[in-house]
Amino acid sequence: MVAEVAVVPPGIDLFVSGQGGYRTYRIPALAVTTRGTVLAFCEGRRDGPSDSGDIDIVLRRSTDGGITWGTPQVVVDMGPHTAGNPAPVVDRSTGTVWLALNHNYGDRGENVIMEGKAPRTVWLTHSDDDGVTWAEPTEITAQTKRPHWRWYATGPGHGIQLRDGTLLIPCDHSDHTDANHPYRSHVIVSRDHGATWQIGGVVGDGVNECMAAELADGTLYLNMRSYHGEHRRAVARSTDGGRTWSAPELDSALIEPVCQASVLHVSLAPADVLLFCNPASTERERLTVRASLDGGRTWPVSRLLWPGPAAYSDLAALPNGSIACLSEQGDGTAYERIRLQVFGLEWAVGT
Fold first, then answer.
1. How far does the chain reach from its first CA to its final CA, in angstroms?
2. Neighbours of 99 (CB within 10 A)
3. Could you report the per-residue pLDDT of 8-48, keeping only the tens digit for each?
4. Mean pLDDT over residues 109-134, rounded?
5. Taking CA atoms, which of 143, 197, 334, 350 is between 20 and 30 Å from 172?
6. Which is more confidently placed, 271 or 296?
7. Residue 5 above 70 pLDDT?
8. Average pLDDT in the chain
9. What is this structure's pTM?
10. Which residue, 26, 73, 71, is CA-closest to 45?
11. Cα(142)–Cα(67) distance, rounded to whole angstroms?
12. CA atoms within 13 A on the CB side of 11
């Protein structure tokens, strides 16, 4: 039995489509720095909702735990081309915020890239001052993408730092070693605080956008968008720091419309909690956060965040222990705004 309540936490709209020079805002991502600054990223799409075109990565910052927010700033602008799929990860030992992203020509979208007629590349920038300023992006495609991969997506959503200090960013790609070019998930890792990156384990076929969490016992949990035709999320696990992954299995409890989703591991004494958020439907609607107390084996608690159209999301733990969800929502469509909602972990768990 899954418990659900109808209470919807209030929220603040951080990005509203049509404002600030962008027709559409999409693809939210969250990070919380070692100093407690909350960073809310997304794609600013100048010309409309298309996944390709003139797209920038934009950011808003909060220094008071998500109560008030600074004005939007552009982190990456590659001219008329696409800079997208923000995937931030914070290095706890240095305080550096790393941001992985993708680039492609604005007039050559996913279909052309899948045909091998245009590149999709991997880039990295970073900030050492809590997101006030950002380094010039550098390309890391050679480190993180195999030659026979065509499509590629970092995240979207946050990466994680493992207990041993490894930085890990979930990604996906299309593999073209055969005629089927299936989508697959993978991770990229850095074991030298972001200086160099390499490809970790690969999971597939028929999965792509994914998010990871390190569980209490050190197991890595990977939750993936699935194309297996059953409208259920796919899950894999790793016991070697993401070097290898188990075969993907569908989680019958996690219904999805084939859409990105987010996961977050947090602690609530005496239990460890894994949170999962997605549109809990076969349509992009009913944004829901679920809680598991057994590492994602079961999901006994469900909480509705938004009953209407909704799509991508990201979760983060705030300095005061609350949980933030940054998500795509709307009244008529899922892409009218990107809203931040904050709720207590006890509310999500049902205590």
1. 16
2. 29
3. 678 999 999 999 999 999 999 999 999 999 999 999 999 99
4. 97
5. 334
6. 296
7. no
8. 95
9. 0.96
10. 26
11. 40
12. 22
206 backbone dihedrals φ, ψ, rounded to 5°:
75, 25
Cβ burial of 268 (10 Å; 0-12, 13-18, 19+) is middle
Dist. CA 118–CA 139, nearest whole Å: 16
Tokens of 99: 């941001």
DSSP 85-134: EEEEEE-TTT-PEEEEEEEE-TT--HHHHHTTSS--EEEEEEESSTTSS-
| Spatial distance between the Cα atoms of 215 and 236, rounded to a whole number of angstroms | 13
Total number of domains constituting the chain: 1
* Sign of the alpha-carbon dihedral angle for 138, 142, 143, 148: positive
What is the DSSP secondary-structure string of 230-274?
SSEEEEEEESSTTSS-PPPEEEEEEE-SS---EEEEEEETTEEEE
- Which residue range forms the structural domain that includes residue 201? 3-349
The enclosing domain of 274 has a CATH number of 2.120.10.10
Largest pairwise CA distance in the chain: 53
The one-letter code for the residue type at 154 is T
CA distances from 244 to 49, 63, 110, 216, 330 (A): 36, 38, 28, 19, 38
Q: Which tens digit of pLDDT belongs to each residue from 314-327? A: 999 999 999 999 99
Residue 54 in tokens = 């003139």
Peptide bond preceding 270: is omega within 30 degrees of 0, i.e. cis? yes
What is d(CA 296, CA 316) in angstroms, rounded to the nearest whole number?
Answer: 17
